[in-house]
Structure formats: C-alpha cells, structure tokens
Specification:
Blueprint: E1 2-3, E2 8-9, E3 23-25, H1 28-42, E4 46-52, E5 62-67, H2 80-86, E6 100-106, E7 111-118, H3 142-153, H4 158-163, H5 175-208
Antiparallel strand pairs: 1-2, 1-3, 3-7, 4-5, 5-6, 6-7
Helix pairs in contact: 3-5
Amino acid sequence: MTNMDEDTEVPSDGKLSKPAMYMYFSSIEEAENYYTEYGKSLGFSIRKRSSYATGRGPRITRVIFVCGCEGIHVSRPDQDEIDLKRKRNTSSMKSDCKAMIRIAFDIKHQTWYINIFREDHNHVMVSPKNRHLMRSSKYMPPAAKSLAEKFNKERLPVGKVASLFGESENIGFTPRDVYNHLRTVRQSLIEVGDAEAVMNYFRKRTIEIPIFTMP
C-alpha cells in the first residue's frame, strides 16, 4: 500500500492510516483487507457493493466498498425481534450510511488506487469488545472448521460443538458460525450422495437391461 504522489510506503505505527485519495494497492484484495481492518479499528463493518468495467472489454476497472450500514432498512412485522437484536450490533443495521471508498485501476502502473473516499457515518460505531464479531471481521480458521466436523461426526449436538470453542469474545467467530459451517458441510455431502445414487441407479439399469446405456 503506497501513496504514489510521494512514492513512499504509508507509515505503519500500529494504527492504520485513514483512507486518502491516490492511496495505491497492489490488488483488489489488498484494498478490501485494508478497508476491512480500517473499519474494524473504528467500529464499522464493510462489504463490497459493486464492481464494473468503464472501458471496452470485460476487465474490471472500478470497485466500490461501502459501510455495512449502507442501504435502507425495511422492517417486516415478523422481524421485530431480529431487529431488536441487530440494534445491539450497529454494523448489521442499515441506516443509509454514505461512507465508502471506490478504487480504480491505474493502467500505467498496473495497480489500484482510491479515487473516491467518503468518511461520514450516520450511526453509532460498534464497541471495541464486539468489533471482532462484526460481519466483515469474523473468521473461522480451517483448524476450527476441521475440529467442529470431527466433533459433529461423534454425534455431538451442534450446540454442544459450538460451546466447546469457548466464549465468542475470545475467538473470532460465534456459535452461529459453527452451525452455518456444519450445515454447509451436510448440504455438500447430501449433494455428493445424490449424485452417487444417480450413478448407481444407471449402473444397475445397465446390468439389468443391456441396451440401457448411461448418459
């Protein structure tokens, strides 16, 4: 991450520099990681809103990252309880926040730079003790996923598996993240099992009816 006007690295003293015009990045991922960490340091979550090409061809030349509170929240009667829970974590409650950065591709330097930066937030920031649980900050390491799968294979209830990792404030994910991961694993196994069942059916039919061929 550099500032091409000065052609020097952005100072790093443990605190991230505030986004600035013509702050350069080597890739979209580096820009996203930077804005994620910057948001975490202040107490707001971020997400990629859009990416698009401005010239001819399919190459992406513009990417927009926005605050997690961007957009307008539409409440439904059946979501009143969910809304109350979300108010405890302002990073997941839409408030039409306009804070964002847009990065553009610099053809000459073959790199990315910030060409729009808006920093005004219209919501309360997440408290320091809860910032590691913001949507863009949560992370469940591969080792934790593997351990959760092993516990689940031993037929431990999902709730019990999640509790084995301790309090969520001491790790980077919640019991809900454990549940979601195990659900994804189950769904993938079901899909694999369904595909295998279809192939077994065709093999069986090929044996029973010689003229029956597999597609």
